Amino acid sequence: MNDRNADRREYPERPIVGVGAVIVRGGEVLIVRRRYEPLAGRWSLPGGTLELGETLEAGVAREMLEETGLEVEVGPVIEVFDRILLDETRRVRYHFVLVDYLCWPVGGELRPGSDVDRAVFVRPADLGPYDLTAKARAVIDRALELAREAPRAVR
Questions:
Q1: How far is CA 15 from the centre of its chain?
Q2: Residue 154's pLDDT is what?
Q3: Rounded to the nearest 5 degrees, what angle is found at the Cα of 102, between the Cα atoms of 97 and 108?
Q4: Is 46 exposed, middle or buried (0-12, 13-18, 19+ CB in 10 A)?
């Protein structure tokens, strides 16, 4: 993609569609420390932007592989929400429409990649020190509810 057509995330002309995941493994959830803005240096859920012509499910699978090294089975949608961040003049600096999915690892090897500098599985009771946003915690809680209500199909 050349610079003229590059995806403009900061001060965009319109909202950008992003996909993310709560990857669940043995009662733990995967969190990542973001390398770049927004939320650079903060712990969050893995995710990224959808590419032109890509389905939501394909996008989340690609992003998980790029950011975590894991191949995932993509499950149900957890939640769809806006993340709008303003600058000091109240101008929209970032505007994402995010679609988060419940996922399970099915292959690959956990390693931080592309937009993250760390990736770890953590027990939900041990998430406190990671200072996740309230929204990320709420999405994780909902994902764990979904995982209990509709567990992954046995393959």
A1: 17
A2: 44
A3: 110
A4: buried
CA-closest candidate to residue 131, choices 57, 56, 58, 43: 43
pLDDT value at residue 7: 57
Tell me how far CA of residue 55 lies from CA of 42, 60, 125, in angstroms: 28, 9, 33
DSSP bridge partners of 49: 18
- 10-residue stretch averages of pLDDT, the chain, 155 residues long: 56 96 96 86 94 97 96 96 94 96 97 91 97 95 91 54
Domains and CATH numbers, the chain: 3-149 (3.90.79.10)
Contact yes or no for 128/46 (Cβ under 8 A): no
Measured distance CA(103)–CA(152) in Å, rounded? 9
Pairing of strands 43-44, 47-49: unpaired
**90: alpha, beta or left, given left = phi > 0 and alpha = psi -120 to 50?**
left
Give me the count of residues in the chain: 155
